[in-house]
What we know:
By secondary structure, the chain is mostly helical.
Amino acid sequence: MRGNDSTGERxxxxxxxxxxxxxxxxxxxxxLREENRMIPxxxxxATKDSVSRYSSRAGSEQKQDTGNxxxxxxxxxxxxxxxxxxxxxxxxxxxxxxxxxxxALHVFEGIDITSITPKMKLTLARRGGRRKxxxxxxxxxxxxxxxxxxxxxxxxxxxxxLQGLGRFKAAQSCKxxxxxxxxxxPDGLPDDFGADCKLQETLNKAVELLPELYKLADSPSExxxxxxxxxxxxxxLETETAAKIQKEFAxxxxxxxxxxxxxxxxxxxxxxxxxxxNLEEAILxxxxxxxxxxxxxxxxxxxxxxxLSYALSVSGELRGLANQVxxxxxxxxxxxxxxxxxxxxxxxxxxxxxxxxxxxxLFSFEESSQFVLALLIASKICGENNNLNSAEEGxxxxxxxxxxxxxxxxxxxxxxxxxxxxxxxxxxxxAVADTERISRQAEALEALExxxxxxxxxxxxxxxxxxxxxxxxxxxxxALHYGKDLLKLEGGSNVNSWLLLARILSARKQFVDAEIIIxxxxxxxxxxxxxxxLRTNAKLQIAQGRLKGAIETYxxxxxxxxxxxxxxxxxxxxxxxxxxxxxxxxxATWHDLAYVYISLSQWRDAEVCLSKSKGIDxxxxxxxxxxxxxxxxxxxxxxxxxxxxxxxDLEPNHVPSLISMAVVLRRLGEQSHAIVRSLLxxxxxxxxxxxxxWNNLGLLYKAIGPSMSLDAADxxxxxxxxxxxxxxxxxx
Length: 732
């Protein structure tokens, strides 16, 4: 107990001596100011009152801030006495540390920053210059480094006090620190500058705080400028501090919602990359952080990769993201996340086969049922590949996901059922026997309906495929019901939903209603996204015999597509894939227009359309088919057969060419019935809902003779039923 008492007495004695010296300095400074001004100073009165309050309280406090005492003693040893501003800095810090923010701010506001700024600048400049010259012959600076550090800390604490009280001047106060240091040392701080005092620590905190203060003051442009200033000037920041600022800056650039002007990096070499917008600057910062992780300058932070994934995904640079993930050191992220991320990147770049192989490799390491998300991704990729093996694999992956989930997560279970339905639907299109096809279609509908029920019919993608599957099975009432619900749910925001509903109405021969739907969609859609809508509208006009109106619609569509193409090549288009999509739509439009001119016997106009298509893609099966139809209309049978053959050489599964080739060969009678039948059965294997293929197969059986009359009747019946429910263009 005696030891504790003696310790308390020594502490109280030290504080009393410190406060006594502080009061002496303050009073002497106040006396000098009063003699000069001959008027009382409110600041001096406030300071005396606070000092008196401290001295009366000092005897009762057991825990004091020994850092304040040491700072005061250090300054007293160097200068012999604390001046007025230094005393206020110490007292303000003491008040701030006690949590008396308003009192601390009152003390700090008594410091005349304007008058002490030149002295601090000169002190810092001489200290920096002396370190460079390594000479001791320089003139004595106007204040000690401890005093300069103390005053800079006071300015920083004043900014914190203003921030705590919600004052907008906090950023201006904090900026003063950076202005003083930067103007004093324009080439940056030398190494170990201010190591013998708290200057470097205060500077680090001020550099980090300033952007945050500007954000709180709702000044995004100043925040961005302060971030760039923090990173471009040589402040001797710690590695972790610099990394934190880089990360926060990248986050602000990505999600602040504003667009800043590009940085003015005059000091960079011509070959250096200079970001042109927020997104590029954020990506650059995040890639720098990943590089620091790789060379082990900073610890791994998973959020860095999360933000970079978002940024590169938005910019369409998924291959760049894949490269960044591949360059990460082993065990930086776990193997599952690595393979799933890479698979998503390659899938997004259109390399589904590569993505699927990565996921299969992941499944080979451990039991695949442990990777539910990977199983769902794999099933989605397989369901989109139009081949038998992929459909079967998609079903297996979805079933494994369902077994692993076992109703643990409704959302993922719903997704698994949805993907199972998509793969079953794809498998049904490859079924040879009708019984197998009908069974798969029923299973697909059941899986899709289960997924829809689990999401209470509120998931747009599930409703879309549910409507689509019903439409393809010619259950048009159900398809129309789900299509309308989908349109209401999305609020008309998705072009594909409008198209599906219009196609369903056209299959019901409600062409006027379908046109109304298309016109409503056109009113709510921007010019750049009207291409498919206009093409469907033209086909609706053709179905109603309004060929001139269809020509005008196709002409309007081609004008939009050509403007899009010019904009794309001039660099105005954002998405990399848009050029390919627009060109394929343009080719199909030229072919459609050629068919209209062929039906009108306007051969020259049809030839112009086909030449335009050839200029875009000389190796198009669709163009060769249209060329064959033109030759057939001119009764150039051999040329027609050659054109259809060229189409099948380019695309063996091109259904229109298979049917047209069979029609011409049957008419010529130069080939056996077996060859014609083979062509038509191949067409039906690829598209069992094609009424033209069934009708021509019936005509073939009828030509063979009475022995095939029943088969011919069945074919004609199927063709008639399908024709009654055929849309103006395929549902899918």
